[in-house]
Write a structure and sequence with these properties.
There is one protein chain. With about 120 residues, this protein is an alpha/beta fold. The chain is built from 5 helices and 5 strands. About 35% of the residues lie in helices and about 20% in strands.
Length: about 120
Amino acid sequence: MPKLYGSEPPPVDSVWKRIKEHGFDVTLFKRNIFNKEKGLDMKLGMDVTMLAMRVRPPGIVALVAGDADYEPVVTQIKSMGWEVEVWYWNNAAENLKKAANLFHSLNPHLNQIGFEGALK
């Protein structure tokens, strides 16, 4: 089952509800007084590592993230025989791009998802 991790949305937001309706397992984190979520990166990293330890034979993990904090997780699960694909905008951390077996840029898809001009 695909898993998504994110910040708790405003009360009127329906995005995460729609994503759940499409069969995704969604884990949301509350925001602190500085409007930042805490624990998301660590939870995702732990879940990916646990998956890599449990599932045999190794397969492919597709990580949609650009944060350099994920590089140790990518390096670890690759050492366990897994392939890791990172999907993110071109501004993903260079060490994460290099650690992955394959990097897929989402920039060519900006117009399709409604962020035209956002990363120019």
